[in-house]
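User: We ran a pulldown and think these components assemble together. Before we commit to crystallization trials, I'd like a predicted model of the whole complex to look at. Sequences follow.
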Amino acid sequence: MKRFWAWAAFLAGLAYMVLPLIGMSEFSLKMRRGVYSLDAYASVLNDPKFQETFAFSVTMAIFTILFGVLLVVPTAYWVRLRLPRLRPYVEFITLLPLVIPAIVVVFGYIRLYNTSSWLPMTGSTLGTNILLMFGYSMLSLPYMYRAVDTGLRTLDVATLTEAAQSLGAGWGTILARVILPNVLVAVLSGAFLTFAIVIGEFTMAALLNRPAFGPYMQLLGANRAYEPAALAVIAFAITWACMGLIQLVTRLSKHTRVQN
Amino acid sequence: MTFLRIDHLEKSFGANRVVKDFNLDVAQGEFISLLGPSGCGKTTVLRMVAGFETPTSGAIHIEGADIVGQRPNQRNIGMVFQAYALFPNMTVAQNVGFGLKIAGAGRAKTDARVEEMLSTIGLEGYGGRYPFQLSGGQQQRVALARALAVRPRVLLLDEPLSALDAKIRTSLRAEIRQIQQRLGITTIFVTHDQEEALSISDRVVVMNGGIAEQVGTPFDVYNHPATAFVASFVGTLSILEGTVKSKAEGSVQIAGQTLTRLRLPDDAAGDDKVSLSLRPESLRLDRRKGDLDLAGKIIAADFLGSVIRIQFEYGGSRVSLDVFNDPTRPPPAVGGSLTVHVAPETILVMRR
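Assistant: Here's a predicted model for the assembly, 612 residues in total across the polymer chains.
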Protein backbone atom coordinates (compact mmCIF):
# COMPACT_ATOMS: atom_id res chain seq x y z
CA MET A 1 0.00 0.00 0.00
CA LYS A 2 2.85 2.28 0.94
CA ARG A 3 4.41 1.56 -2.41
CA PHE A 4 1.20 2.51 -4.18
CA TRP A 5 1.07 5.94 -2.58
CA ALA A 6 4.72 6.53 -3.28
CA TRP A 7 4.14 5.81 -6.94
CA ALA A 8 0.96 7.86 -6.96
CA ALA A 9 2.80 10.87 -5.54
CA PHE A 10 5.63 10.41 -8.01
CA LEU A 11 3.29 10.16 -11.00
CA ALA A 12 1.28 13.17 -9.87
CA GLY A 13 4.48 15.19 -9.60
CA LEU A 14 5.64 13.97 -12.98
CA ALA A 15 2.30 14.84 -14.58
CA TYR A 16 2.45 18.34 -13.08
CA MET A 17 5.82 18.87 -14.75
CA VAL A 18 5.37 16.96 -17.97
CA LEU A 19 1.77 17.67 -19.00
CA PRO A 20 2.31 21.39 -19.70
CA LEU A 21 5.41 20.49 -21.68
CA ILE A 22 3.51 17.93 -23.72
CA GLY A 23 0.68 20.39 -24.22
CA MET A 24 3.06 23.11 -25.33
CA SER A 25 5.01 20.82 -27.63
CA GLU A 26 1.82 19.50 -29.14
CA PHE A 27 0.52 23.02 -29.67
CA SER A 28 3.78 24.05 -31.32
CA LEU A 29 3.24 21.36 -33.96
CA LYS A 30 -0.29 22.52 -34.85
CA MET A 31 0.46 25.57 -36.98
CA ARG A 32 -0.83 23.88 -40.11
CA ARG A 33 -4.52 23.22 -39.75
CA GLY A 34 -5.51 19.57 -39.21
CA VAL A 35 -2.03 17.98 -39.36
CA TYR A 36 1.09 18.03 -37.21
CA SER A 37 3.93 19.95 -38.81
CA LEU A 38 7.17 21.70 -37.96
CA ASP A 39 6.01 24.92 -39.61
CA ALA A 40 6.25 26.93 -36.40
CA TYR A 41 9.84 25.77 -35.90
CA ALA A 42 10.71 26.56 -39.49
CA SER A 43 9.18 29.98 -39.10
CA VAL A 44 11.16 30.66 -35.93
CA LEU A 45 14.45 29.30 -37.20
CA ASN A 46 14.15 31.17 -40.49
CA ASP A 47 13.38 34.42 -38.80
CA PRO A 48 16.53 36.58 -39.18
CA LYS A 49 15.64 38.20 -35.87
CA PHE A 50 15.92 34.82 -34.16
CA GLN A 51 19.35 34.16 -35.61
CA GLU A 52 20.52 37.65 -34.81
CA THR A 53 19.33 37.69 -31.19
CA PHE A 54 20.43 34.15 -30.52
CA ALA A 55 23.92 34.85 -31.89
CA PHE A 56 24.09 38.01 -29.76
CA SER A 57 23.10 36.15 -26.61
CA VAL A 58 25.52 33.29 -27.28
CA THR A 59 28.36 35.77 -27.79
CA MET A 60 27.39 37.56 -24.58
CA ALA A 61 27.25 34.22 -22.76
CA ILE A 62 30.77 33.30 -23.90
CA PHE A 63 32.22 36.62 -22.75
CA THR A 64 30.28 36.41 -19.49
CA ILE A 65 31.70 32.93 -18.85
CA LEU A 66 35.25 34.03 -19.65
CA PHE A 67 34.96 37.06 -17.38
CA GLY A 68 33.32 34.93 -14.68
CA VAL A 69 36.14 32.36 -14.76
CA LEU A 70 38.81 35.07 -14.64
CA LEU A 71 37.06 36.74 -11.72
CA VAL A 72 35.82 33.79 -9.70
CA VAL A 73 38.60 31.19 -9.92
CA PRO A 74 41.41 33.43 -8.61
CA THR A 75 39.08 34.98 -6.02
CA ALA A 76 37.79 31.67 -4.65
CA TYR A 77 41.34 30.26 -4.72
CA TRP A 78 42.82 33.21 -2.88
CA VAL A 79 40.03 33.22 -0.29
CA ARG A 80 40.61 29.51 0.37
CA LEU A 81 44.38 29.87 0.46
CA ARG A 82 45.02 33.10 2.31
CA LEU A 83 41.79 34.67 3.55
CA PRO A 84 39.66 31.83 4.91
CA ARG A 85 38.23 34.18 7.51
CA LEU A 86 36.68 36.27 4.74
CA ARG A 87 34.84 33.31 3.25
CA PRO A 88 31.44 33.98 4.90
CA TYR A 89 31.54 37.59 3.68
CA VAL A 90 32.55 36.69 0.14
CA GLU A 91 29.82 34.04 0.07
CA PHE A 92 27.31 36.62 1.26
CA ILE A 93 28.34 39.01 -1.51
CA THR A 94 28.06 36.30 -4.14
CA LEU A 95 24.54 35.51 -2.91
CA LEU A 96 23.33 39.12 -3.17
CA PRO A 97 22.18 38.76 -6.81
CA LEU A 98 19.59 36.26 -5.58
CA VAL A 99 17.96 38.83 -3.30
CA ILE A 100 18.44 41.99 -5.35
CA PRO A 101 16.10 41.97 -8.37
CA ALA A 102 17.76 42.46 -11.74
CA ILE A 103 15.56 45.46 -12.40
CA VAL A 104 16.97 47.25 -9.36
CA VAL A 105 20.50 46.54 -10.49
CA VAL A 106 19.90 47.67 -14.05
CA PHE A 107 18.27 50.90 -12.90
CA GLY A 108 21.31 51.44 -10.74
CA TYR A 109 23.56 50.84 -13.75
CA ILE A 110 21.60 53.27 -15.89
CA ARG A 111 21.78 55.93 -13.18
CA LEU A 112 25.48 55.41 -12.59
CA TYR A 113 26.71 54.94 -16.14
CA ASN A 114 24.32 57.07 -18.23
CA THR A 115 25.60 59.44 -20.87
CA SER A 116 25.83 62.37 -18.47
CA SER A 117 27.71 60.44 -15.78
CA TRP A 118 31.46 60.34 -15.16
CA LEU A 119 31.68 56.99 -16.90
CA PRO A 120 29.17 57.15 -19.78
CA MET A 121 29.11 53.46 -20.64
CA THR A 122 25.60 53.54 -22.10
CA GLY A 123 26.79 56.15 -24.59
CA SER A 124 28.13 53.55 -27.02
CA THR A 125 27.06 50.09 -28.19
CA LEU A 126 30.29 48.54 -27.00
CA GLY A 127 30.01 50.24 -23.61
CA THR A 128 26.44 49.05 -23.18
CA ASN A 129 27.40 45.52 -24.17
CA ILE A 130 30.22 45.55 -21.60
CA LEU A 131 27.79 46.84 -19.00
CA LEU A 132 25.35 44.07 -19.90
CA MET A 133 28.13 41.51 -19.59
CA PHE A 134 28.97 42.79 -16.12
CA GLY A 135 25.29 42.51 -15.24
CA TYR A 136 25.14 38.94 -16.51
CA SER A 137 28.31 38.07 -14.60
CA MET A 138 26.72 39.39 -11.46
CA LEU A 139 23.55 37.39 -12.03
CA SER A 140 25.55 34.19 -12.52
CA LEU A 141 27.89 34.88 -9.59
CA PRO A 142 26.01 32.74 -7.03
CA TYR A 143 26.19 29.70 -9.31
CA MET A 144 29.70 30.25 -10.59
CA TYR A 145 31.24 30.97 -7.19
CA ARG A 146 29.47 28.08 -5.50
CA ALA A 147 30.48 25.64 -8.23
CA VAL A 148 34.15 26.69 -8.16
CA ASP A 149 34.31 26.82 -4.36
CA THR A 150 32.85 23.32 -4.13
CA GLY A 151 35.44 22.16 -6.65
CA LEU A 152 38.23 23.73 -4.60
CA ARG A 153 36.94 22.06 -1.45
CA THR A 154 37.85 18.66 -2.87
CA LEU A 155 41.49 19.80 -3.28
CA ASP A 156 44.18 20.36 -0.69
CA VAL A 157 44.72 23.83 -2.15
CA ALA A 158 47.42 24.92 0.30
CA THR A 159 49.64 21.86 -0.08
CA LEU A 160 49.26 21.70 -3.86
CA THR A 161 50.23 25.37 -4.04
CA GLU A 162 53.29 24.80 -1.88
CA ALA A 163 54.28 21.72 -3.86
CA ALA A 164 54.08 23.73 -7.08
CA GLN A 165 55.98 26.65 -5.52
CA SER A 166 58.79 24.38 -4.34
CA LEU A 167 59.09 23.15 -7.93
CA GLY A 168 59.62 26.71 -9.13
CA ALA A 169 56.09 27.68 -10.22
CA GLY A 170 54.80 31.25 -9.89
CA TRP A 171 51.19 32.29 -9.20
CA GLY A 172 50.12 32.35 -12.84
CA THR A 173 51.45 28.86 -13.49
CA ILE A 174 49.90 27.52 -10.30
CA LEU A 175 46.48 28.90 -11.23
CA ALA A 176 46.61 27.87 -14.87
CA ARG A 177 48.32 24.48 -14.62
CA VAL A 178 47.44 23.17 -11.17
CA ILE A 179 44.29 24.81 -9.80
CA LEU A 180 42.16 25.47 -12.90
CA PRO A 181 42.54 21.98 -14.45
CA ASN A 182 41.52 20.42 -11.15
CA VAL A 183 38.36 22.51 -10.83
CA LEU A 184 37.56 22.40 -14.54
CA VAL A 185 34.50 20.22 -14.10
CA ALA A 186 33.18 22.63 -11.48
CA VAL A 187 34.01 25.61 -13.70
CA LEU A 188 32.19 23.99 -16.62
CA SER A 189 29.06 23.31 -14.61
CA GLY A 190 29.15 26.95 -13.51
CA ALA A 191 29.70 27.94 -17.13
CA PHE A 192 26.70 26.02 -18.44
CA LEU A 193 24.46 27.49 -15.76
CA THR A 194 25.75 30.92 -16.75
CA PHE A 195 24.97 30.09 -20.38
CA ALA A 196 21.40 29.13 -19.50
CA ILE A 197 20.92 32.30 -17.47
CA VAL A 198 22.27 34.58 -20.20
CA ILE A 199 20.18 32.94 -22.93
CA GLY A 200 16.95 33.40 -20.97
CA GLU A 201 17.64 36.77 -19.34
CA PHE A 202 15.10 39.46 -20.18
CA THR A 203 15.15 42.39 -17.75
CA MET A 204 18.68 43.68 -18.18
CA ALA A 205 18.83 43.23 -21.92
CA ALA A 206 15.43 44.87 -22.42
CA LEU A 207 16.18 47.88 -20.22
CA LEU A 208 19.61 48.38 -21.74
CA ASN A 209 17.92 48.00 -25.12
CA ARG A 210 20.20 45.28 -26.46
CA PRO A 211 19.01 42.81 -29.12
CA ALA A 212 19.18 39.72 -26.92
CA PHE A 213 17.28 36.45 -27.07
CA GLY A 214 15.15 37.12 -23.98
CA PRO A 215 13.44 40.26 -25.27
CA TYR A 216 12.99 38.52 -28.64
CA MET A 217 11.12 35.66 -26.93
CA GLN A 218 8.93 38.16 -25.15
CA LEU A 219 8.22 40.07 -28.36
CA LEU A 220 7.32 36.91 -30.22
CA GLY A 221 5.12 35.75 -27.35
CA ALA A 222 3.16 38.98 -27.46
CA ASN A 223 2.53 38.91 -31.19
CA ARG A 224 2.32 35.35 -32.47
CA ALA A 225 0.34 32.21 -31.59
CA TYR A 226 2.34 29.07 -32.47
CA GLU A 227 5.90 30.39 -32.72
CA PRO A 228 6.32 31.19 -29.00
CA ALA A 229 5.52 27.57 -28.16
CA ALA A 230 8.11 26.37 -30.68
CA LEU A 231 10.62 28.87 -29.29
CA ALA A 232 9.97 27.68 -25.75
CA VAL A 233 10.62 24.09 -26.84
CA ILE A 234 13.87 25.19 -28.53
CA ALA A 235 14.96 27.10 -25.41
CA PHE A 236 14.10 24.10 -23.30
CA ALA A 237 16.16 21.83 -25.56
CA ILE A 238 19.14 24.19 -25.25
CA THR A 239 18.93 24.12 -21.46
CA TRP A 240 18.73 20.35 -21.44
CA ALA A 241 21.65 20.12 -23.81
CA CYS A 242 23.65 22.23 -21.35
CA MET A 243 22.72 19.89 -18.50
CA GLY A 244 23.69 16.91 -20.63
CA LEU A 245 27.03 18.51 -21.43
CA ILE A 246 27.75 19.02 -17.71
CA GLN A 247 27.16 15.30 -17.17
CA LEU A 248 29.23 14.33 -20.18
CA VAL A 249 32.20 16.50 -19.21
CA THR A 250 32.09 15.20 -15.65
CA ARG A 251 32.26 11.64 -16.93
CA LEU A 252 34.94 12.26 -19.53
CA SER A 253 37.29 13.94 -17.09
CA LYS A 254 39.99 11.27 -16.73
CA HIS A 255 41.59 12.05 -13.41
CA THR A 256 38.31 12.37 -11.53
CA ARG A 257 36.82 9.13 -12.77
CA VAL A 258 37.67 7.45 -9.50
CA GLN A 259 38.10 9.67 -6.48
CA ASN A 260 40.57 8.41 -3.92
CA MET B 1 82.25 22.54 5.51
CA THR B 2 78.82 24.01 6.22
CA PHE B 3 76.40 23.85 3.30
CA LEU B 4 73.22 24.98 5.00
CA ARG B 5 73.45 27.26 8.01
CA ILE B 6 70.49 28.24 10.16
CA ASP B 7 71.43 31.17 12.34
CA HIS B 8 69.50 32.38 15.41
CA LEU B 9 66.19 31.60 13.73
CA GLU B 10 63.06 32.84 15.50
CA LYS B 11 59.41 32.62 14.59
CA SER B 12 56.43 34.04 16.44
CA PHE B 13 52.76 33.84 15.55
CA GLY B 14 51.36 36.81 17.44
CA ALA B 15 52.51 36.44 21.04
CA ASN B 16 53.28 32.76 20.55
CA ARG B 17 57.01 32.08 20.01
CA VAL B 18 57.08 28.76 18.18
CA VAL B 19 60.78 28.69 17.27
CA LYS B 20 63.32 30.10 19.70
CA ASP B 21 66.93 30.84 18.77
CA PHE B 22 67.33 27.83 16.51
CA ASN B 23 70.84 27.20 15.19
CA LEU B 24 72.00 24.40 12.95
CA ASP B 25 74.92 23.77 10.59
CA VAL B 26 74.37 21.09 7.98
CA ALA B 27 77.16 19.67 5.86
CA GLN B 28 76.67 18.88 2.18
CA GLY B 29 75.10 15.47 1.71
CA GLU B 30 74.14 15.17 5.35
CA PHE B 31 70.82 13.68 6.47
CA ILE B 32 69.41 15.60 9.44
CA SER B 33 66.21 14.75 11.28
CA LEU B 34 64.19 17.23 13.30
CA LEU B 35 62.54 15.13 15.97
CA GLY B 36 60.02 16.26 18.53
CA PRO B 37 56.42 16.09 19.71
CA SER B 38 53.71 17.90 17.77
CA GLY B 39 53.81 21.64 18.27
CA CYS B 40 57.55 21.70 19.04
CA GLY B 41 58.28 23.92 16.03
CA LYS B 42 60.03 21.36 13.82
CA THR B 43 57.69 21.80 10.88
CA THR B 44 57.87 25.58 11.22
CA VAL B 45 61.68 25.43 10.91
CA LEU B 46 61.31 23.28 7.80
CA ARG B 47 58.72 25.64 6.31
CA MET B 48 61.01 28.60 6.92
CA VAL B 49 63.81 26.82 5.04
CA ALA B 50 61.34 26.10 2.21
CA GLY B 51 60.16 29.71 2.20
CA PHE B 52 56.53 29.08 3.15
CA GLU B 53 56.97 30.97 6.43
CA THR B 54 59.00 34.11 6.97
CA PRO B 55 61.25 34.10 10.04
CA THR B 56 60.60 36.78 12.64
CA SER B 57 64.38 37.10 12.87
CA GLY B 58 67.51 35.16 12.03
CA ALA B 59 69.08 33.97 8.82
CA ILE B 60 69.19 30.88 6.62
CA HIS B 61 72.26 30.50 4.41
CA ILE B 62 72.77 28.02 1.62
CA GLU B 63 76.32 27.95 0.25
CA GLY B 64 76.96 31.20 2.05
CA ALA B 65 74.04 33.16 0.58
CA ASP B 66 71.12 34.29 2.74
CA ILE B 67 67.89 32.93 1.24
CA VAL B 68 65.37 34.47 3.66
CA GLY B 69 64.43 37.18 1.15
CA GLN B 70 63.85 34.71 -1.68
CA ARG B 71 60.41 33.42 -2.64
CA PRO B 72 59.83 29.64 -2.35
CA ASN B 73 59.95 29.22 -6.13
CA GLN B 74 63.35 30.91 -6.32
CA ARG B 75 65.10 28.74 -3.75
CA ASN B 76 65.53 25.46 -5.64
CA ILE B 77 64.64 23.44 -2.57
CA GLY B 78 62.70 20.22 -3.07
CA MET B 79 59.95 19.29 -0.67
CA VAL B 80 57.94 16.15 0.02
CA PHE B 81 54.71 16.51 2.00
CA GLN B 82 52.88 14.21 4.35
CA ALA B 83 49.78 14.35 2.12
CA TYR B 84 51.83 13.50 -1.05
CA ALA B 85 50.45 16.62 -2.83
CA LEU B 86 50.67 15.07 -6.29
CA PHE B 87 48.80 17.09 -8.91
CA PRO B 88 45.64 15.01 -9.49
CA ASN B 89 45.16 16.25 -13.06
CA MET B 90 48.59 15.08 -14.19
CA THR B 91 50.00 11.63 -14.87
CA VAL B 92 52.95 10.30 -12.90
CA ALA B 93 55.31 11.37 -15.70
CA GLN B 94 53.78 14.85 -15.89
CA ASN B 95 54.04 15.21 -12.11
CA VAL B 96 57.71 14.22 -12.10
CA GLY B 97 58.43 16.45 -15.10
CA PHE B 98 56.50 19.47 -13.74
CA GLY B 99 59.50 21.25 -12.23
CA LEU B 100 61.63 20.65 -15.31
CA LYS B 101 58.89 22.04 -17.55
CA ILE B 102 58.70 25.17 -15.39
CA ALA B 103 62.48 25.50 -15.60
CA GLY B 104 62.18 25.38 -19.39
CA ALA B 105 64.07 22.13 -19.93
CA GLY B 106 63.41 20.73 -23.39
CA ARG B 107 61.04 17.85 -24.09
CA ALA B 108 63.80 15.30 -24.71
CA LYS B 109 65.73 16.31 -21.61
CA THR B 110 62.58 16.23 -19.46
CA ASP B 111 61.52 12.82 -20.75
CA ALA B 112 64.98 11.36 -20.11
CA ARG B 113 65.10 12.77 -16.59
CA VAL B 114 61.57 11.53 -15.82
CA GLU B 115 62.55 8.02 -16.95
CA GLU B 116 65.69 8.20 -14.84
CA MET B 117 63.75 9.30 -11.76
CA LEU B 118 61.05 6.66 -12.24
CA SER B 119 63.72 3.99 -12.40
CA THR B 120 65.37 5.46 -9.28
CA ILE B 121 62.14 4.99 -7.32
CA GLY B 122 61.41 1.63 -8.95
CA LEU B 123 58.26 2.72 -10.78
CA GLU B 124 59.30 2.22 -14.40
CA GLY B 125 56.27 1.84 -16.63
CA TYR B 126 54.01 3.82 -14.26
CA GLY B 127 54.49 7.12 -16.14
CA GLY B 128 51.06 7.05 -17.77
CA ARG B 129 49.10 6.44 -14.59
CA TYR B 130 47.22 9.02 -12.59
CA PRO B 131 47.90 9.50 -8.87
CA PHE B 132 44.54 8.00 -7.88
CA GLN B 133 45.60 4.74 -9.54
CA LEU B 134 48.58 4.36 -7.17
CA SER B 135 48.86 3.15 -3.58
CA GLY B 136 49.94 5.55 -0.84
CA GLY B 137 53.51 4.27 -0.86
CA GLN B 138 53.75 4.59 -4.63
CA GLN B 139 52.32 8.12 -4.52
CA GLN B 140 54.89 9.14 -1.96
CA ARG B 141 57.69 7.69 -4.08
CA VAL B 142 56.42 9.70 -7.05
CA ALA B 143 56.37 12.80 -4.83
CA LEU B 144 59.99 12.07 -3.93
CA ALA B 145 60.93 11.64 -7.59
CA ARG B 146 59.14 14.89 -8.44
CA ALA B 147 61.06 16.77 -5.76
CA LEU B 148 64.39 15.27 -6.86
CA ALA B 149 63.88 15.63 -10.62
CA VAL B 150 64.89 19.31 -10.61
CA ARG B 151 68.14 18.50 -8.77
CA PRO B 152 67.34 20.69 -5.76
CA ARG B 153 70.10 22.00 -3.52
CA VAL B 154 68.34 20.73 -0.41
CA LEU B 155 65.59 18.14 0.06
CA LEU B 156 62.98 18.71 2.76
CA LEU B 157 60.79 15.86 3.96
CA ASP B 158 57.80 16.85 6.08
CA GLU B 159 56.65 13.68 7.86
CA PRO B 160 56.52 11.85 4.53
CA LEU B 161 55.86 8.45 6.06
CA SER B 162 53.15 9.34 8.57
CA ALA B 163 50.22 8.56 6.29
CA LEU B 164 51.52 5.10 5.34
CA ASP B 165 51.00 1.76 7.03
CA ALA B 166 53.74 0.24 9.18
CA LYS B 167 55.30 -2.14 6.68
CA ILE B 168 55.48 0.35 3.81
CA ARG B 169 56.79 2.94 6.24
CA THR B 170 59.79 0.81 7.15
CA SER B 171 60.62 -0.16 3.57
CA LEU B 172 60.16 3.36 2.18
CA ARG B 173 62.29 4.73 5.00
CA ALA B 174 65.17 2.51 3.94
CA GLU B 175 64.57 3.42 0.31
CA ILE B 176 64.63 7.16 1.04
CA ARG B 177 67.92 6.80 2.89
CA GLN B 178 69.40 4.73 0.08
CA ILE B 179 68.38 7.25 -2.61
CA GLN B 180 69.61 10.14 -0.47
CA GLN B 181 73.01 8.53 -0.02
CA ARG B 182 73.29 7.62 -3.68
CA LEU B 183 72.48 11.15 -4.82
CA GLY B 184 74.40 12.74 -1.95
CA ILE B 185 71.66 15.31 -1.45
CA THR B 186 71.53 17.41 1.72
CA THR B 187 68.30 16.44 3.45
CA ILE B 188 66.21 17.65 6.38
CA PHE B 189 63.58 15.22 7.59
CA VAL B 190 60.84 16.14 10.04
CA THR B 191 59.29 13.42 12.16
CA HIS B 192 57.75 12.77 15.54
CA ASP B 193 58.71 9.09 15.31
CA GLN B 194 61.97 8.52 17.17
CA GLU B 195 62.63 5.14 15.59
CA GLU B 196 62.36 6.75 12.16
CA ALA B 197 64.71 9.56 13.13
CA LEU B 198 67.29 7.29 14.75
CA SER B 199 67.37 4.77 11.93
CA ILE B 200 67.65 7.12 8.99
CA SER B 201 69.77 10.11 10.07
CA ASP B 202 73.38 11.16 10.21
CA ARG B 203 72.41 13.55 12.98
CA VAL B 204 69.22 14.15 14.95
CA VAL B 205 67.96 17.46 16.30
CA VAL B 206 65.62 16.85 19.24
CA MET B 207 63.23 19.78 19.59
CA ASN B 208 60.92 20.78 22.38
CA GLY B 209 58.95 23.99 22.87
CA GLY B 210 60.63 25.68 19.91
CA ILE B 211 64.13 24.95 21.19
CA ALA B 212 66.71 22.51 19.85
CA GLU B 213 67.43 20.56 23.03
CA GLN B 214 70.16 18.41 21.54
CA VAL B 215 71.92 17.97 18.22
CA GLY B 216 73.90 14.78 17.79
CA THR B 217 74.31 11.42 16.13
CA PRO B 218 71.50 8.93 16.82
CA PHE B 219 73.96 6.97 19.02
CA ASP B 220 74.78 10.06 21.10
CA VAL B 221 71.24 11.28 21.44
CA TYR B 222 70.03 7.87 22.55
CA ASN B 223 72.87 6.96 24.86
CA HIS B 224 73.89 10.36 26.17
CA PRO B 225 70.79 12.54 26.24
CA ALA B 226 71.66 16.12 27.13
CA THR B 227 68.40 16.92 28.91
CA ALA B 228 65.64 15.12 30.78
CA PHE B 229 63.29 15.81 27.88
CA VAL B 230 65.62 14.17 25.35
CA ALA B 231 66.08 11.20 27.66
CA SER B 232 62.34 10.68 28.00
CA PHE B 233 61.37 11.46 24.40
CA VAL B 234 63.95 9.32 22.66
CA GLY B 235 63.45 5.66 23.44
CA THR B 236 61.50 4.07 26.29
CA LEU B 237 62.69 5.06 29.69
CA SER B 238 61.86 4.07 33.26
CA ILE B 239 62.44 6.87 35.72
CA LEU B 240 63.14 6.27 39.43
CA GLU B 241 63.39 8.95 42.05
CA GLY B 242 66.07 8.83 44.73
CA THR B 243 68.34 10.89 46.99
CA VAL B 244 72.12 11.25 46.71
CA LYS B 245 73.79 9.55 49.66
CA SER B 246 77.44 10.08 48.85
CA LYS B 247 78.91 11.97 45.94
CA ALA B 248 82.28 10.28 46.31
CA GLU B 249 80.86 6.76 46.17
CA GLY B 250 78.30 7.65 43.56
CA SER B 251 75.60 6.24 45.78
CA VAL B 252 71.90 6.98 45.69
CA GLN B 253 69.31 5.92 48.24
CA ILE B 254 66.19 4.52 46.63
CA ALA B 255 63.39 2.28 47.94
CA GLY B 256 65.33 1.50 51.06
CA GLN B 257 68.27 0.30 48.99
CA THR B 258 71.56 1.99 48.21
CA LEU B 259 72.75 1.83 44.64
CA THR B 260 76.46 2.53 44.29
CA ARG B 261 79.03 3.29 41.59
CA LEU B 262 76.55 5.49 39.69
CA ARG B 263 77.72 8.33 37.46
CA LEU B 264 76.32 11.35 39.28
CA PRO B 265 76.01 14.81 37.71
CA ASP B 266 79.08 16.97 38.39
CA ASP B 267 77.14 19.47 40.47
CA ALA B 268 75.35 16.87 42.58
CA ALA B 269 75.83 16.96 46.38
CA GLY B 270 74.64 14.87 49.29
CA ASP B 271 70.85 14.77 49.91
CA ASP B 272 70.16 16.13 46.43
CA LYS B 273 67.06 14.69 44.83
CA VAL B 274 67.92 12.93 41.57
CA SER B 275 66.14 10.89 38.93
CA LEU B 276 67.55 7.63 37.64
CA SER B 277 66.71 6.69 34.05
CA LEU B 278 66.87 3.12 32.86
CA ARG B 279 66.55 1.84 29.29
CA PRO B 280 64.54 -1.41 29.01
CA GLU B 281 67.37 -3.09 27.09
CA SER B 282 69.99 -2.32 29.76
CA LEU B 283 68.19 -4.47 32.35
CA ARG B 284 68.95 -8.22 32.37
CA LEU B 285 67.63 -11.36 33.98
CA ASP B 286 71.11 -12.93 34.16
CA ARG B 287 73.65 -11.41 36.51
CA ARG B 288 77.05 -10.22 35.43
CA LYS B 289 79.94 -9.15 37.59
CA GLY B 290 79.52 -5.67 39.03
CA ASP B 291 75.78 -5.52 38.34
CA LEU B 292 73.31 -3.87 40.71
CA ASP B 293 70.28 -5.91 41.69
CA LEU B 294 66.73 -4.56 41.65
CA ALA B 295 63.96 -6.69 43.10
CA GLY B 296 60.27 -6.07 42.52
CA LYS B 297 56.86 -7.48 41.73
CA ILE B 298 55.81 -8.17 38.14
CA ILE B 299 52.83 -6.03 37.12
CA ALA B 300 52.71 -6.78 33.38
CA ALA B 301 54.34 -9.06 30.84
CA ASP B 302 53.54 -8.08 27.23
CA PHE B 303 54.40 -10.46 24.44
CA LEU B 304 55.54 -8.31 21.46
CA GLY B 305 56.74 -11.12 19.19
CA SER B 306 60.51 -11.15 19.15
CA VAL B 307 60.62 -9.34 22.48
CA ILE B 308 58.78 -9.70 25.79
CA ARG B 309 58.39 -6.43 27.68
CA ILE B 310 58.14 -7.09 31.41
CA GLN B 311 57.07 -4.32 33.77
CA PHE B 312 57.74 -4.55 37.49
CA GLU B 313 57.31 -2.26 40.40
CA TYR B 314 60.42 -0.92 42.04
CA GLY B 315 60.65 1.97 44.47
CA GLY B 316 57.09 3.08 43.70
CA SER B 317 57.82 3.34 39.96
CA ARG B 318 57.07 1.16 37.00
CA VAL B 319 60.25 -0.21 35.44
CA SER B 320 60.35 -1.83 31.99
CA LEU B 321 62.64 -4.60 30.92
CA ASP B 322 62.95 -6.20 27.48
CA VAL B 323 63.97 -9.83 27.08
CA PHE B 324 64.19 -11.79 23.86
CA ASN B 325 61.44 -14.28 23.24
CA ASP B 326 62.49 -17.85 24.01
CA PRO B 327 60.07 -20.52 22.64
CA THR B 328 60.95 -22.84 25.53
CA ARG B 329 60.18 -20.24 28.16
CA PRO B 330 56.72 -18.60 28.35
CA PRO B 331 56.41 -15.04 29.71
CA PRO B 332 56.61 -14.81 33.54
CA ALA B 333 53.37 -14.71 35.52
CA VAL B 334 52.01 -11.35 36.63
CA GLY B 335 52.18 -10.96 40.42
CA GLY B 336 55.35 -13.01 40.83
CA SER B 337 58.55 -11.52 42.19
CA LEU B 338 61.52 -10.74 40.01
CA THR B 339 65.13 -9.67 40.47
CA VAL B 340 66.81 -7.94 37.56
CA HIS B 341 70.38 -6.82 37.08
CA VAL B 342 71.85 -3.67 35.63
CA ALA B 343 75.34 -2.34 35.04
CA PRO B 344 75.63 0.90 37.08
CA GLU B 345 77.28 2.80 34.21
CA THR B 346 74.15 2.37 32.04
CA ILE B 347 71.98 4.23 34.54
CA LEU B 348 71.52 7.87 33.63
CA VAL B 349 71.35 10.10 36.72
CA MET B 350 69.97 13.63 36.49
CA ARG B 351 69.13 16.26 39.07
CA ARG B 352 65.47 16.84 39.66
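Residues 236-351 of chain B form a domain with the OB fold (Dihydrolipoamide Acetyltransferase, E2P) fold (CATH 2.40.50.140). That may be worth checking against your pulldown data before setting up trials.

User: Thanks, that helps.
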